[in-house]
Write a structure and sequence with these properties.
Strand content: 35-45%
Strand order of the largest sheet: 1-2-3-4
Structural class: alpha+beta
Order of helices and strands: HHHEEEE
Oligomer: single chain
Shape: globular
Number of domains: 1
Number of helices: 3
CATH class: Alpha Beta
CATH topology: Beta-lactamase Inhibitory Protein, Chain:B, domain 1
Largest sheet: 4 strands, antiparallel
Length: 90
């Protein structure tokens, strides 16, 4: 019995699950700096728990919310770049 296909599926499923995890630590938050794109932030912190977006007077904005355990982080983007970051860790 060839177990290679089963092993490949198993690796793919768990690999994708690991990539979607939130890497919410103070150390990782300190790696985020103004001007970073949403993709760059997601590469460091993972996918956000929630995203809010809007546009006013042609200025596009979004806020990424990360919640994990006692940690809460908000990253605000204006015109596709980080403008504000804040977080609390417990």
């Amino acid at each position: 019995m060839n177990r290679l296909p089963l092993l490949a599926v198993f690796t793919l499923v768990f690999g994708m699950a690991a990539c979607s995890r939130v890497h919410l630590t103070n150390e990782n938050l300190n790696k985020v700096y103004n001007g970073m794109t949403e993709a760059q932030v997601e590469a460091i912190l993972g996918k956000p728990t929630r995203i809010e977006t809007g546009e006013t007077l042609g200025i596009k904005g979004s806020t990424y919310y990360y919640d994990k355990g006692g940690a809460h982080v908000e990253i605000t983007f204006l015109n596709n770049g980080v403008m504000v970051k804040q977080g609390t860790f417990q």
